[in-house]
Amino acid sequence: MTIQTMDMMGTNVTGFKTDAEKWQAVRARDKTADGQFYFSVATTGVYCRPSCGARLPNRENVAFHNDRDAAEAAGFRPCKRCRPDSTPSWQARAAMVAEACRFIEDAETSPTLEDVAAHAGLSPHHFHRVFKEVTGVTPKAYATAHRTKAVKAGLKTGGTVTDAIYDAGYGASSRFYEKADGFLGMSPKAYKAGGKGQTVRYSIRPSALGRMLIAATDKGICMIQFGDDDTALTEALSHDFPDATLTAGDAVFDAWADAALALVETGAKPEAGLPLDIQGTAFQQKVWQALQAIPPGETASYKEVAEAIGDAKAVRAVARACASNRIAVAIPCHRVVRSDGGISGYRWGVERKRVLLSREKKA
């Protein structure tokens, strides 16, 4: 499956630019490519959407078209199996889920599953299954993520912590405080202060993949980033911790940074591991834990990672979680590849991903 950059609802936003990418999408019956292009088959005289379940045609008989009008102008008729001239069912489901998301976001307090399902016109069980299939998370997890985002925005406006929590739809502040560290990476009070009072130690070192920024809180490594410009790397760190005290590392930090650098330079796994301060949603953390279980020198497909976390249909959500990873190498999203073994997108560049995989295989 060709994994491209996805938006929040899992829609492909970068497109399939080359015929090779389009053919790979057809071979994978990639639903994310539907509507972005169509393909015709000379021997049957029909045109199809990329996800068509009909028998795969020979490549030499296939041509690609930007839209249905172009395919029909070339003399091809719609396939009766995938019906490219109608709205695919998955798009209708995605539209329904998008509307449900707006309903959740606009509610003053977090609605129940029954309320959202009734709004969508489905039974709670059916709605829950469809919602998770489209977004990769449950309705409850989506509502929690939205409320957390609202709390973050409220904390930045200058109001009190309590006001921000209740304005976001939490019925009791205790429910938010129970998991605040996981949501915010620090206490609500510290987040409101932009990390004020927090100390983040960091250093930027040369590596085989270019300049490498390593940062850590007292809990562990919170960021590993690659780039070509020290200023841009430092600005990225400051953006996440605008009012924290950014300082040089001490002896403990230097040991962590040495171990992180060794991951890049030798592909070796540090004997004692690295303590990580992982900040993300419950789904993201589940994916990142699965990535850490992939041994150095080995790879897994996005589908295999989805299966490993017990949700085989969450392939696109897994891809989004990989793209959201801020701790390069230590959380090895570079070990996730396409189903055919091909190297696809990487937050810090495909070439860096290729180098990492090569070094790990030789280690």
Molecular structure report:
By secondary structure, this protein is an alpha/beta fold. 44% of the residues lie in helices and 12% in strands. The chain contains 16 helices and ten strands. The chain has a four-stranded mixed beta sheet. Strands 7-6-5-8 form a four-stranded mixed beta sheet, sandwiched between helices. Helix 3 (89-106) crosses helix 5 (124-135) and helix 4 (113-120) crosses helix 5 (124-135).
Name a few traits of the molecule.
globular, 4 domains, 363 residues, single chain, DNA Methylphosphotriester Repair Domain, disordered N terminus, four-stranded mixed sheet, Double Stranded RNA Binding Domain, 16 helices, alpha/beta, 44% helix, Arc Repressor Mutant, subunit A
Q: How is the topology of this model organized?
A:
Blueprint lengths: L18 H10 L9 E4 L4 E3 L13 E4 L2 H6 L3 E2 L10 H18 L6 H8 L3 H12 L3 H18 L4 H7 L5 H5 L2 H5 L3 H5 L6 E9 L2 E7 L4 E7 L2 H11 L4 E3 L3 H15 L16 H11 L7 E2 H7 L6 H9 L12 E2 L12 H13 L1
Parallel strand pairs: 2-4, 5-8, 9-10
Antiparallel strand pairs: 1-2, 1-3, 5-6, 6-7
Helix pairs in contact: 3-4, 3-5, 4-5, 6-7, 14-15
